[in-house]
């Protein structure tokens, strides 16, 4: 009908541009991390040279880490590639456990390129031509010397963000460019959620994005409850002058008990995506009552046990993209997924309303390796 068409066009007009395939940043440098446009252009040129001949490959290590960890650990190997004129590429099995299932089987790829644009236009050609492979074995971030000199110690941004944190955000941003298939899938999902009004598009002004990471993260940090996250949001809302009529939360979490608690919260309007249904009508196991495993990995160590991993990843990406529409951000930055949200709201979004609000790090969980010169985890 004409009404349906009008509603669809209105939704499409309000979709953020970073949903588009092959998205590249432009404009508004004052509301992004310093040098972001320059760095993104430099990475792109380094990874996509006019001719591929003569370039060695730096192949990212094979591992079973999830997507956010893969994007962050790639900062070292991509930095090494840039510094020496090589080409960074994913290992064919980079994070395979997270990329198993129908969606990635159909793509014929079981690494991050299942969802994203391949990191280079050269990797397949270079591999076919027998290009040299340079191993990356350094367990640290390699930051191109050019950027180290452009952001020396004592510069304003070094007081609030370490160079490692900044570089990791830049690499994650470059790699976080959807291929056409994933772009189309996530746009359709956002249109459907907007049509339901849960959540609306865009999120209301002053919405708090709260990511509560539980599951297997107990091995790495002290997990904080929903109440602790909400308390941090309450304190920040008062300090930042958010009116009581604008107390909105967009929640992402791997814990179904957090969802139950959040939806029972008074004084806030809480939005949370329901776990979608599978083809047989059963809910996708994107949240489990087992608080010790990652839902994508927890069924078993067999291939069959990870059959839903890529669908769970799509659900997580759907949630992350909506989170980037928020104004305020709350979570534990001991979680790499939480850090990925922080990375992208500083780079992809390019809006002052989210860029200028410090991240609210519940329980000061950011690893001390990333503490900047003027570290204060409870900025409001």
UniProtKB/TrEMBL annotation:
GO terms for molecular function: alpha-(1->6)-fucosyltransferase activity. GO terms for biological process: protein N-linked glycosylation. Signal peptide: none annotated. It comes from the Eukaryota. PANTHER family: ALPHA- 1,6 -FUCOSYLTRANSFERASE, ALPHA-(1,6)-FUCOSYLTRANSFERASE. This is Peptide-O-fucosyltransferase.
